[in-house]
Amino acid sequence: MNHAYRALKQVSMVLLISCLTLIFGCSTAPKGPIAQAMINSTANPATSLGIAQFTETKDGLQIQASLTGAPQGAHGFHIHEMGSCADGGTAAGGHYNPNSAQHGFLIEDGFAKAHAGDLGNIVVVEDGTAELAETVKGLTLTEDPYAIANLSVILHADPDDFSQPTGNAGGRIGCGIIQLSDS
């Protein structure tokens, strides 16, 4: 009987914690808008290279990118200032930089020492796939000063070496416009 009581007590505790998590949410639960960017090849815009999803959470903007069919190696992965992928991605303009800061790695350096679009590198493995998951405190989709909805995300040909002025990441091989989701 005592064993059954303990088991019932443990199950009750698990159910209570589960219910509280559902009621109060967790840090990765969306708190605002959600957006995505379909990343297509700049050489052949009909060729999909992957998707980046952007979700506002209480901890910051959660960025998750998943690539398929991209060239192996490290590639600069940045948010750019314009919402256009025309002209091989050059219409996206430069890195998103509302503070006129130097180039850096936003996740480590913060807004004072990096462009607001400096997300660093994404590493593509031998089979052409890559995953990136970062949460950036301060970036948002719609609230100034660091709103990124309707801007572009660029996949560069080379790795970002974090040098000035833009990290030597080379040409633009993939581009997607960050569009708010209806849901």
What does this structure look like?
The protein has 183 residues and is an alpha+beta fold. The chain has a single domain, classed as Sandwich (Immunoglobulin-like), CATH 2.60.40.200. 15% of the residues lie in helices and 33% in strands. It contains two helices and nine strands, in the order H-E-E-E-E-H-E-E-E-E-E. Strands 1, 2, 3, 4, 5, 6, 7, 8 and 9 form a nine-stranded antiparallel beta sheet that branches.
Topology:
Layout: H1 2-24, E1 34-41, E2 48-57, E3 60-67, E4 73-80, H2 106-109, E5 118-124, E6 130-136, E7 152-156, E8 172-177, E9 179-180
Antiparallel strand pairs: 1-2, 1-8, 1-9, 2-3, 3-6, 4-5, 4-7, 7-8
Class by helix and strand content?
A: alpha+beta
Second CATH tier, the architecture: Sandwich
Shape: globular
Separation, N- and C-terminal Cα atoms:
49 Å
What's the CATH class label? Mainly Beta
Q: What letter string, H or E per element, gives the SSE order?
A: HEEEEHEEEEE
Query: How much β-strand is present in the residues?
Result: 25-35%
**Total domain modules:** 1
Rg on CA atoms, Å: 20 Å
Number of helices: 2
Helix proportion range: 10-25%
Q: What's the main sheet like?
A: 9 strands, antiparallel
Whole-number mean pLDDT: 87
CATH superfamily: Superoxide dismutase, copper/zinc binding domain
Number of strands: 9
Named CATH topology: Immunoglobulin-like
Question: Uncertain runs with pLDDT below 50, 5 residues or more?
Answer: 1-27
